[in-house]
Design brief:
alpha/beta, 15 strands, 2 domains, globular, about 40% helix, about 400 residues, four-stranded antiparallel β-sheet, Aspartate Aminotransferase, domain 2, 12 helices, about 15% strand, Aspartate Aminotransferase, domain 1
């Protein structure tokens, strides 16, 4: 079925964070897709709107069952209804967990380069960031387990935030890697928050491995953050869940989310979630095909037309991680130059920690015509930058 992914929807002047830019600018920075969401989700939201009364909402039986069915069918993970707690977003859940599961001045470990908001959730709550940088060799990212254990063994390290699949590098962590992470965290008394919001944006016919699925240890020590928002293009609806198998840990997180008042749905959150996970699988499968055609299109264009940079191979997310280190400049300097010269707005890799320096992140979740425009601007910007040096 044709879901109209080639159609361009004008998002300017709609209150869009992504598109709050100058008229000549093309935003390809924040992880926000430019496609209309699945028809069944639109229908569900319209039905709620047509009712006309937007009072306080409860979490019905169907909400948990939609998650349970999706994760069992798509990812082979058994979830019990009591293991799920509604929350208004993955980031609010992470911040609440940081406050509840650690004390001020303790350390929270992250694997950089990684989603920049993790830094905010840690630092803004009076905790310290401890980085265990990923290893990047021959175009492939991996975990430095020696460094990871050294950082986890610090008595002040009490929490780790795992990104699975990893943003921005697009890595799907395999079961062996996840099991070893769980083993080391258990050994050193560290709880794991696994941010799995990108889990359904994978290369067609390729799945991700839920952290909680790989061992009893991983199940017992983890809080998994899951949601329909990223993969179905509905982040503005503010709907997510945390999945916590261990009862004692679950009680702590439940208390945290309720204390912070981020455990109640808006009028559209439940309906959109149920429609996504029970009626929109075909739409998502078509989307994944389109997104990875875009990825290959971008990789080919960059390889053939932009010497000096390369796209890191990835099997998850719609975010393309551009290695620009051969240009020998800061990522913020390069990003600002490209934006000033061409209007193309990318995210500088330095925002994701020191190992992201020299990289740029490009969001390819857009119609092909928009992607082509962005790639041409990228080419012009890089050429102009090299001439300016």
């Amino acid at each position: 079925m044709d879901y109209g992914f080639d159609s361009v929807t004008d998002r300017r002047n709609t209150g869009s964070l992504k598109w709050d830019v100058k008229e000549n600018e093309l935003p390809m920075w924040v992880a926000d897709m430019d496609f209309k969401t699945a028809p069944c989700i639109i229908e569900a939201v319209k039905k709620c709107a047509d009712h006309g009364v937007f009072g306080y909402s409860v979490i019905p039986y169907e909400w948990a069952q939609s998650y349970i069915g999706w994760w069992k069918t798509r990812h082979g993970l058994d979830i019990s209804p009591e293991e799920l707690i509604f929350c208004t977003g993955v980031v609010p859940a992470i911040s609440s967990c940081v406050r509840k599961l650690t004390t001020p001045a303790e350390k929270v470990l992250i694997q950089t380069p990684v989603y920049n908001i993790f830094f905010n959730s840690i630092v803004n709550n009076g905790r310290y960031v401890i980085e265990s940088p990923l290893v990047y060799e021959n175009g492939v990212y991996s975990v430095d387990f020696e460094d990871l254990e050294k950082k986890l063994s610090d008595p002040q390290t009490s929490l780790m935030i795992l990104c699975n699949p990893h943003n921005p590098v697009g890595k799907i962590w395999d079961a062996a890697t996840l099991a070893e992470i769980g083993k080391l965290c258990k050994k050193h008394g560290v709880t794991v928050i696994s941010d799995e919001i990108h889990c359904d944006i994978t290369e067609p016919n390729k799945g991700y491995v839920p952290f909680a699925s790989v061992s009893d240890v991983c199940r017992k020590i983890s809080v998994s953050c899951i949601a329909p928002t990223k993969c179905f293009g509905i982040p503005g609806i503010n709907s997510a869940a945390v999945m916590i198998p261990d009862p004692k840990l679950r009680h702590k997180v439940w208390r945290a989310l309720n204390t912070d008042e981020v455990a109640e749905p808006n009028s559209f959150a439940v309906a959109a979630t149920v429609a996504a996970f029970t009626k929109s699988g075909d739409w998502l499968d078509s989307l994944r095909e389109y997104l990875f055609e875009n990825r290959r299109r971008a990789e080919k264009f960059i390889e053939e037309n932009i010497p000096g940079i390369s796209a890191v191979k990835a099997d998850a997310t719609y975010l393309i991680w551009l290695d620009c280190r051969s240009l020998s400049c800061g990522s913020e300097e390069l990003g600002e130059f490209i934006r000033s010269e061409t209007g193309l707005y990318l995210t500088p890799g330095a925002e994701y920690g020191a190992p992201g320096e020299g990289f740029l992140r490009l969001n390819a979740a857009c119609p092909k015509s928009v992607l082509d425009d962005g790639l041409k601007r990228l080419k012009r910007g890089i050429e102009a930058f090299m001439k300016s040096k």
